[in-house]
Structure prediction request, 78 residues.
Amino acid sequence: MHLEIITPEKKIYTGEVDLINLPGSDGSFGVLKDHAALVSTLKKGEIKIVEIDSSEKFFPINGGVIEVNNNNIIVLAE
Prediction:
């Protein structure tokens, strides 16, 4: 899956990932390959991504929005 995490200041991540865990407004959730199309709001918390090589990265956010469509994920984060 192709992931982009964008803040008002800059793009903080772009790359291919196997998994992303997010702090959704109604609870945490994860996105795997071939996930159904989705738009959701995010609350303050931490985004965890697992890259293709199984390495993990973490990004703190203060809220935002995620869009998932055809294995493309865009996170607009504060």
